[in-house]
Design goal:
The chain has 1 helix and 14 strands, in the order αββββββββββββββ.
Length: about 240
């Protein structure tokens, strides 16, 4: 009987130990499950944030693409502006050339035909025309008074003629066009008091320093190179 009781006691003790072990195992399993759920939730939230950040980066990249397109448009505009500038420069140079008539541009001569011949009557105040023809090949303009010096042969006399009191007008001459000016003078006869026969008329176009010498084709003139208001003088271009 004592042996049987001891066996029963051992068996009961073993059963109690087994029950305690089972309870401990059940608590461990619950703790592990809670830990697993917590770990699973954290990565999911983190992945969501990462996905949102990626979307934001994608939007920024789209803006960068738009900016690049705008830069390309600016480059195109710059090319157009350069083309326009070149065209304008060429047009201006080709269309606006009208210069002053230089001495070398002009064929200068006395007008001697028909009614251009002045009076030869002593004491008359008469006039002769000097023609200026544009031979330059381009358009040019003349305005103002020419210079005229009368020179005699075998002497040092040079008479720079006074200018007529008159206004001036600009004349535009196409190639081949002609204008003129007049020399008014007092006629004398050879041998009369104050009579002087020029041999050369030196003509200088307005605003020029180069001259052309023309043989004087007319009668003697009354020399008044010292007079305040001489009867011999020069008119403006176009007179």
């Amino acid at each position: 009987m004592r042996a049987l009781h001891a066996a029963a006691t051992i068996t009961a003790t073993a059963a109690l130990a087994l029950g305690l072990t089972a309870c401990g195992s059940s608590g461990s399993s619950n703790s592990s499950a809670d830990s697993t759920a917590s770990t699973s939730t954290a990565p999911t939230a983190s992945a969501t944030d990462a996905t949102g950040t990626t979307g934001s980066t994608s939007t920024t990249s789209g803006s960068t693409g738009t900016g690049t397109g705008t830069t390309g448009s600016t480059g195109s505009g710059t090319g157009t502006t350069g083309s326009t500038g070149t065209g304008t420069g060429t047009g201006t140079g080709a269309s606006s050339r009208t210069s002053r008539c230089h001495t070398a541009d002009l064929a200068i001569s006395f007008a001697t035909g028909g009614d251009a011949v002045p009076s030869t009557t002593s004491g008359d105040q008469t006039s002769t025309a000097v023609a200026l023809r544009n031979k330059s090949g381009h358009i040019c303009t003349l305005k103002g008074f020419p210079g005229v010096d009368l020179k005699g042969s075998g002497a040092t006399t040079t008479w720079s003629l006074a200018r007529k009191s008159a206004s001036t007008t600009s004349f535009t001459l196409a190639n081949g066009d002609t204008t003129e000016f007049t020399i008014t003078f007092l006629v004398t006869k050879k041998g009369e008091e104050g009579s002087w026969t020029p041999t050369t008329a030196v003509v200088t176009p307005p605003n020029e320093t180069t001259s052309v010498s023309l043989a004087w084709p007319w009668s003697p003139v009354l020399l008044q190179d010292g007079a305040t208001h001489p009867g011999t003088y020069v008119g403006p271009i176009g007179s």
